Amino acid sequence: MRDSSSNAQAVARLKPNISVSDARAHMDVIAQRLEKAHPEENTGIGAAIVPLRRQLAGGVRTQLSLLLGAVGLVLLIACVNVANMLLSRSYAREREMAIRTSLGASRMRLLRQLLVESLVLASLGGAVGAILGMWSFAFAERLVPSQVQRVVPGGGFDPRMLLFIVGVTLITGVCFGLAPAWQLSHARPVDALKQVRGRSRRILGRVGLGDLLVTGQVALALVLLVGAGLMIRSLHRLLHVDPGFEPTRVLTLEAGGPPRDLFQRDPQAFTRYYERVLEPVQNLVGVEAAAVAAHVPFTGDYSGMDFYRADRPVPAAGELPTASQHTVTPDYFRAMGIPLLRGRVFDGTEQGYTVPAGLTLTPENFFQIFKNVTFVGVISEKMADRFWPDEDPLGKRFRLGSPQMGLPWVDIIGVVGNTRQLGLERAEAPEFYLSLRQFPLPGAMYLVVRSQQRPTSLVNSVRSVVASVAPDEPIRDVRVLADRIASSTAGRRFNRNLFTCFAGTALALAIIGLYGVLAFNVGRRTREIGIRMALGADRSDVIRSIVKRGLLLVVPGLIIGIGCAWALGRVLQSQLFGTTASDPLTYAFGTLLMLLTAAAACIIPARRAARIDPMEALRYE
Known about the structure:
It is a single chain. This protein is an alpha+beta fold. The protein folds into three domains: 72-200, no CATH class; 209-241 and 482-621, no CATH class; 257-473, no CATH class. The protein is built from 21 helices and 13 strands.
């Protein structure tokens, strides 16, 4: 079967001190040797070596990295909020620290005390988070798509996560408690005792450390907002991709075929077996159409076959075109909802073939029975456009495999719509369909049943029918076709949901941080605002002043966030479909949402400032 199979797979453990690159070099030599020994069959056929870890986790590696990054951004925003809270609290403790310093406390002792307080706060948060994580683990595990579960060890909460939580708690407690601790420990005792506003908190003119933290929060929140927006738009476009068939109300299941030795004696017995299965299934109440196929879309099964046109020169070895090959029964197109564009489909009267008496099929003589046999076939529109451009393919002929294989010629009788077999994000491939009566294949086949009602209501009836024909054959992989499509997008749904959740959390934290800083500033400026209003300042002027102050913190954060989001988009591009990482609508929407919510957060302390009674403010402390 060398000339018809070039997808053999093997598993090997490398010897000690042998790297993957060394193994690739060895396999390249072997592939070149085989190509020289069998030029007609092995030309252009190489060998690919993939580490097992990458084989299992390669598809979700980027996905997990993005999610880890999103979690890190949310943690960073939360920690910035805590740091801002500690900074605000430090103002109220200036007199306390000044008195401690006056009584002989050293700067290092104050720093240690404040860091311990920060670590206690972080430890309490880490403990609560660990408890909530263990409590919600079973629920969260159900939300994880299967492709991620393959590489994540199951069996409940991993104890190693506790070590990770402890490490993160210590790092965040130290890092984000350091700024307020350093600030308090460096406060001037004389100014604090005199209640004089120190200048050490101003970093760039009138911009303080708390202000910079809020700007950073806004930037990080916008990064997650844009990331979530790109994921949402990508999934929306993916879900609106036409798969080429109508998946609603279609039940699919894999039914075991007859014994292989029966196929070797009489391949037509294989066809008759499935015809006996189909007849009672088609007669079930509520069944609109039923068919058998070697492959069903979105199961991961794929069969490609070389071919060449009868009216063109035979391509050189290794340059034969390839198309996806399907073996089906006549009602397959109606059961799947694949439209017929030209010609006709199979009608069940296709001429079969016979096996010479006494011949037992083996891999060596399997193709001998196809000599001088002509099949009829149906091709997809993609195959017609690519290989018969600007001409009518009906009545044209192509041959399966290479000339040396001696496989049958195929006369084209119809053209049907394109279908997506392996995923909505995969482009349609050229396809052709052969009749099960003419090209039976040994092994299990899929049963496709279109129902007039809920397809799951037919499961027991279909099982009973198959069991009555072949009681010893298993039935596997029973699923509704629409669920198969949904499962193929589960990873993208998971990304979208988590990014949206993280973006919402980040937005809320950023707004809380902005509100907290402005509210604190309003409290500290009560006397100043009272004097302004006593001197004739209008309430609208006070509101504008506070809102302007808030927006001056937000706008730089938006600018920085747009740049960071653009950089993140380069990483996200592999996870997107139908949209670019620099989609202007997503950036505009995220920026506008951030700006509007920030403006709303500014309005509340601004209105509070406008309601200050000037007389009360003048008596303030």
